[in-house]
Fold:
Amino acid sequence: MVEVLARLYYLTGEEAYRERAAKIVYIFCGEDTQPMLAMPSLLRGYELLEKAVQTVIVGERNDNATQILLQTALHAPAPNRVLMQMEPDSTLPSHHPALGKQQIEKKATAYVCIGPTCSLPITDADHLLKTMIAAQG
Structure:
């Protein structure tokens, strides 16, 4: 449940989802995170809540370059991935670190964000894959 609520928070920007996820973790563990070691699903959800790798791809959904970036992001070894594809004229939730980021030279463009910081614009699939792998730490 923590993982689902964390993903909903990142995708919608609704703070209530984040608060609910954090509350569930606190109910099971309190101030001591040691019990999470015996609950791998809770640990995975907590890690996503705290260290999501948010990847945003800005481009027309039916554009071939957008699809290549999407497929690259989906197949990247990134367990904490939260992936969003948005049309060039769309906007992200107000909390999202990639808010206001746009396509570069009208090409499908990706941004990889951790916490409040996003990568420079990425238009190449290989560069996207390397950036997502590096973001996993």
Remarks:
- Residues 2-50 form one domain.
- The chain has a mean pLDDT of 90.
- Residues 15-29 form the longest helix (15 residues).
- The chain has five helices and four strands.
